[in-house]
Design brief:
mainly beta; 2 helices; two-stranded antiparallel ribbon; elongated; 5-stranded antiparallel sheet
């Protein structure tokens, strides 16, 4: 079994009103050095499950495609020092 960690970090999404920052929670696997982690799955964007018609404020001009953002982030390498570790299976065992 791989050592998974759950991380939280910020990313930017493009809306009709311009670029907005969102908080992403994802499951990731750290690399051998432990400094980077590869995102396996995005579990939440701003605390909600990713869907197609997400909006930060409910306004149409703030809407973005959460599933597209989740697909974009999947496979991305993130620096662990720039993320908040929410849950670490290595420490729980």
């Amino acid at each position: 079994m791989t050592n998974q960690i759950q991380i939280r970090y910020t990313a930017s999404v493009f809306t009709a009103a311009g670029w907005r920052s969102v908080t992403i929670t994802a499951n990731a696997v750290p690399n051998k050095t432990g400094k980077m982690a590869k995102v396996i799955e995005v579990t939440a964007i701003d605390g909600e499950v990713p869907t197609t018609g997400m909006s930060r404020t409910g306004a149409k001009r703030q809407a973005y495609n959460g599933k597209s953002i989740a697909a974009r982030e999947q496979g991305a390498n993130k620096r662990i020092s720039a993320c908040v570790i929410v849950e670490d299976e290595r420490e729980a065992a």
